[in-house]
Amino acid sequence: MNNHLHPQDSQALMETTERLFHRDFDVPAVRTHNWAALHQAVCEVIDYYLQRAPERFFQIMYRLDVDEKKVKDCLAQGNLEALAAIIIEREKEKAQWRLRYPSRSIWHDDDDEAGH
Question: What domain of life does the native source organism fall in (predicted)?
Answer without folding.
Answer: Bacteria
